[in-house]
Structure formats: structure tokens, C-alpha cells
Prior knowledge:
The protein is about 40% helix and about 15% strand. It is of the alpha/beta class and about 575 residues long. The strands form 4 sheets. A 7-stranded parallel sheet has the order 11-12-13-14-15-16-17, covered by helices on one side. A hairpin with a 2-residue loop joins strand 8 and strand 9. Helix 1 crosses helix 7 (about 105-115), helix 21 packs across helix 22 (about 510-520) and helix 22 packs across helix 23 (about 540-545). The radius of gyration is 25 Å and the shape is globular. The chain binds 2'-deoxyguanosine-5'-triphosphate (DGT) and calcium ion (2 copies). 2'-deoxyguanosine-5'-triphosphate binds near residues 261 and 264.
Amino acid sequence: MSVHNPEIARLLERYALLLEIDRANPFRVRAYRNAARVVENLPRDVGAMLEEGADLSELPGIGKDLAHKLEQICETGKFAELREIEKHVPAALADLAEVPGLGPKRVKMLFETLKIKSMAGLAAAARHGKLHELPGFGAKLEQTILKATEAHISGEEQRVRLFAAEQIAIPLVKYLESLKGIQKVTVAGSYRRRKETVGDLDILAICTKGKTAIEHFVRYNEVANVLAEGTTRATVKLKSGLQVDLRVVPAKSYGAALLYFTGSKAHNIQLRQMGMKRGLKINEYGVFRKEEWIAGQTEKDIYARLDLPYIEPELRENTGEIEAAKAGQLPRLLTLKDIKGDLHIHTNASDGNATLEEMAEAARARGYEYLAISDHTKHVGITHGLDGKRLARQMNAIDRLNARSRGFRLLKSAEVDILPDGRLAADDAILRELDIVTAAIHTQFTGDQTQRLIRAMDNRYVHIVAHPTGRLIGEREAYGVDMRKVMQAALERGCHLEVNGQPSRLDLNESHCKMAKEMGLKLALVTDAHSADTLDYMRHAVDQARRGWLASKDVLNTRAWADLAKLLKRH
Ligand code: DGT
Ligand code: CA
Ligand code: CA
């Protein structure tokens, strides 16, 4: 049985929701929700780990009991407790709880008062105006629900997070490349533009024998059904639900096809219009003057025909990149190589699973010059947070390790909770001792959080605000926050915000990055890693930053520690 991580996470999340509807102990609910988060952010499939005999209970947030459930899911596609609860709480209620504006409590109420237990039932109730008079509902919410349920019923596309799409695309590309005669395989579309979610995968391959390549593709063992099959293109649906288009092109028009299928559509349309003004026709086969083919082997050749420099895929959204290219003002986008250290990670002193030494070693192995150890400080609701004593011990350990190492430095840091009134959940006496204080909201975030974040930055020991909007892609909307105000406040105080590279967060997003750059606010790119291998999530933060037009100079941790330390000084 091949069950992939996103599916496992979805089952755990679903169970948490059903428990919540069933008014189970909130700690249990949270344990399952945390586990869902851990699984969806794992770099490898749980199934593959089990095959290699890994002990899942060593994962952060996964105990013996949960590890056992993960095994059950991998073997049977479900687990006993989920089957059990679905006997008395209709499974569809979990879907209803995810409708914007609803939630477990309201769903329970709808079920008990109006007997609503399906999406269709909810849509009908909204359409017939049965919801707006219920306590706490109102006409606006009724409209929101109506729209959301109708979109759901009409089967509007389910988008997949980029990280989950990668886990599907990478083995598929490897499989395609294994065919003799295939020269080059590239995933184009939104995937290549590094969007945070993708609707489907658009794969391009160079091959002289198109038909053979297509036959090889549709035989892939993850294919659930073949939706279209021709001699140079095919569309399949994979077992994961993701749709994949493959197009096989000759080497001569590879650049043209790559440009076309990378998109975005809006970017392509602009280019085509520019071409038309010069008497050129641009399509997926090449650039043509009258009927004559004049370019198309590389994307660079095509841009050159329009007197444009090469434009990076991450910028191709028709949001000013073509104008900037014309004016010679494209940013030189930062790359992973520019990053000199990670400014937000956890060890097993709080909720991570690796030791201080292991994390330091992994950071050195990545060529970093520094690593900030930012375990949670102790606070209600934070598991294993460090109190003053344990933090002091960690600082001593850091001093000892630093004394022994050359060219690499561990930074003393902590991730401190921002309380609802904007105060921090740690004493200044502790914060003063740290190289970097990262403040974050983890609880009670209904309503606008702008002032709460600004208050937190009023504390003169705060340097960086972590995951500033709190959103979880596809799961939880950002809390209300006026980002321009927060960024302005950060500038005034000499504070900074982070771009969190956890695949489920990517917070700040690309438009926030762009805003920060325009305002002159430097950002920290971090992983929030809870294990050594997830230090690699830096590349997701870099993707996001590139989509937000950031150059190396717009980012804090592209600098040596001495320069970074100066930038961190508060006004
Ligand atoms: P997605 O799949 O929703 O995440 O987004 P994309 O950008 O991957 O879009 P998709 O898969 O519909 O199409 C892939 C690329 O093909 C798209 O980025 C640009 C190109 N394309 C698709 N349809 C058209 C079209 O009607 N005109 C032009 N110029 N390009 C198109
Ligand atoms: Ca696509
Ligand atoms: Ca497509």
C-alpha cells in the first residue's frame, strides 16, 4: 500500500477535527494536529522510512502511540480510532469544519440543530437562507459559506503544495530519465516558477522518439488513469490525485516550449505582443519571421530576439518584470549559495529531535558560518520550553562549543512567545543575554494582530518576528495583520521579519518580500528546522524570496556574523 505523507497528514488532521467536533480533550486534538504538521513537513515518505526500519517515535512530536498509528496507516490506509469515531461523528463533518467561517464548534451546532452532515446539505441550507439567523452567523457569513460550498461541489481544482508536488515530481522525472533516448526532462509550469502551490505538473522532455517516451510515461506505476494519450503528449492522473501533462519536443524548439509551458500565461501574452510589434510570431515551437523559424533552442535566444535579458522563472508573473528587464533593472536574485547561516532552528532541548552538537555539525556541513539556536522558552502551551536555568545551561554549552571551533559560531537565541497583550513570555534579564531574540505568536490569534506584533517589537531586546502572518498553506488563513504597518514599525525600531522556510508556512510570502524590499526592510531567511536534515528547507525560503525579487543585499543572513551583528543592533 503506498500512502504518501500529504495523505497521512490529511488523515491525522481529519481525526483531530472529528475529535474536536466530538469535544475531546484539547491536548489530544493538538497532539494529532502537531503530528499532521510533522508528517507533512518530513523530507521523506513515512512509508519509505518504515521500510528501512526507522523508529518513527524518534521524530519530533511523535510518541510510541502515534508511531503505531502511522504504521497502521501505511499498511491499511487508515487507523482504528479514525474508523471508530466515524461511526458516531459523520466523516463529512471534518470537511465542513474546513469551510471558511465555520469550524468544529459551528459544524457541531449545525449538525445538532439543522441535521447538516454533508457539503450538499450545507450548500442547500445557505441557499435557502437558513443560516444567517443562527446565533453568531449573519448574512455575510452565509454568503461566504454559499460560495465556498458551491466551489467545493463543482469540484474546483485542489492545489497541491510545492513541497508535496516535489516529492511526486522528483521520482517521476527520474523514471522518465531512465528511458534510453530521453535527453532532458524538466518540470515547467507553476512548479518551475516555484509558486507555493501547483494545480498540475507540466513536464517537458526532449526525445527523438516521441511515441516511445509517451508509452513509457503512461506505464509509470503511480499512474491511476490516462486521460489523454497522443504521439507527443499525454495527460495522466496519478494515484495521489495530481494531474501531469507530458510533452515531448525536439531539441530545436526546446527553449520555445520551455518558455511557453513555464508561463505564466500573463507573462507569455506580454512577450507575444512585444513580438508582434516587431513582426515576430512567438509560439511553443519557436520565434518566426513570416514563416521562417529564427530562434527557439533556448529561452535566452527568445528573450534576446525581443532585446530582453534572460528573465528568471520566479519573476515571470507579469508583475513588472518585463518593464524592469527593458529598463535593465532586473534584480540579481539571491541564491542558496549566498546564505551564510540559519537564524531560527530548534534542538531537542525544546521540541526538536537533534542535539545541539548534531545541529551544529549539520550546519557546518552545509558550509554555514553561523547557526542561531532558538529553542522555545517556557510558556503555557509550549511543550518542553526552556526556563531560565535550562537556557543558561544551553548558553554555557554554546560557549564551550564556540571556544573549540574555528570559522563557525553558534548564536545564542530563543523563540519567545508574544502574549495576547504584546508582552513577551520571558524576562528581559534573560533576553538581554541572547545574540538574537525571535518573537512569535503561537496562540489566541483571532482578530487583528497588528498592534500585538508592534507591541512585541517595542521590547528593546527583540530582533526578529517569526512567521509573521501565522498562515498555514491550504489549512489556516493568515491572522489579520496590516503588514505595511508592521514593517514600518520594524524599520523604526531596527527590527526585522523572517521568511520561514517550513513547507507548510512560507511566511512571509512573496508579495510581503516585495513590500519589504520596497520599504528597505531586510529580512531573515530561516528554516525553523526541528531536525538536522530539515536545515535543507532553506531552499524553500530562498524560492519565496526570489519570487519576491530579493537580492542578496536584501537579506540579513547573507552577511558574515560581524556585519550581521551590526545590522541587528536596535535603534
Ligand atoms: P497551475 O498548474 O494552475 O499551478 O499553473 P500553471 O502556470 O502551471 O498553468 P497550467 O498548468 O495551466 O499551464 C502551464 C503553462 O502553459 C502556463 O503557465 C502557460 C502555458 N499556457 C497554458 N495555457 C495557455 C494559453 O492559453 N496561452 C498561453 N500563452 N500560455 C498558456
Ligand atoms: Ca501546471
Ligand atoms: Ca497543465
